[in-house]
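RECORD TYPE: inverse folding
INPUT: structure tokens
STRUCTURE:
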């Protein structure tokens, strides 16, 4: 059963951050050679809540797919490239995820293989889009209001904005207590709903993907602890 890993790394020193920035290019040579890896992406992050066009030079991410959970955990724990990131980082956290729904494409691929889902409880959501250059200014004009809303929502248990290319490639990742809570946020009237309508009316994206996951494991910590979603509802 396919497992997706999302590894976040926080770098504190200037030298470590410069190293991480350089690895956005250099690591591309090593990633395809990792045993058992499928689809993968190297990402930076945004400042504030993460949903801004201004890069956060302290946080970087690696997303990858694997044939099963055991392989995912083993490769993330033992592969030299991941260990190099951990050695340079002040903190790291990896979530292991089971895809339960996906629609759209990422780099002209359908990377996630959804599994049947009968579980209840926490759910993770990932959205990814390639923004058309001609509407990038309009798109990012909507983002500050969306960022404020999601940041103030007491139900969101973890959120981060990451991306492959600043301004044009945007990824949002969030964890919610259940499917209904997440759906309520997405559908209620406000900046988020209005932005979605603008995107649909104006066809702002060249490519988009929406996926949901169950959390099947974790390793490491973030902000000195496992986020409260995992403490309140053990996995």
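DESIGNED SEQUENCE:
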């Amino acid at each position: 059963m396919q497992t997706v890993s999302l590894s976040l790394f926080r770098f504190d020193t200037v030298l470590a951050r410069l190293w991480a920035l350089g690895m956005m290019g250099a690591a591309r040579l090593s990633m395809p050679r990792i045993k058992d890896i499928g689809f993968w992406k190297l990402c930076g992050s945004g400042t504030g809540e993460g949903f801004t066009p201004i890069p956060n030079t302290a946080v970087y991410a690696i997303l990858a797919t694997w044939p099963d959970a055991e392989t995912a955990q083993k490769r993330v724990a033992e592969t030299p490239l991941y260990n190099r990131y951990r050695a340079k980082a002040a903190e790291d956290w990896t979530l292991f995820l089971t895809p339960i729904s996906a629609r759209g494409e990422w780099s002209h691929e359908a990377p996630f293989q959804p599994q049947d889902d009968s579980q209840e409880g926490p759910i993770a959501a990932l959205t990814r889009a390639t923004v058309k250059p001609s509407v990038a200014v309009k798109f990012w004009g909507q983002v500050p209001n969306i960022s404020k809303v999601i940041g103030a929502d007491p139900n969101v248990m973890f959120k981060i904005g990451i991306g492959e290319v600043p301004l044009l490639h945007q990824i949002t990742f969030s964890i919610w207590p259940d499917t209904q809570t997440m759906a309520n946020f997405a559908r209620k009237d406000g900046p988020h709903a209005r932005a979605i309508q603008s995107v649909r009316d104006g066809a702002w994206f060249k490519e988009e993907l929406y996926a949901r996951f169950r959390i099947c494991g974790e390793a490491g910590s973030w902000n000195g602890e496992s986020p409260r979603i995992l403490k309140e509802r053990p996995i």
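NOTES: Residues 146 and 192 are 5 Å apart (CA to CA).
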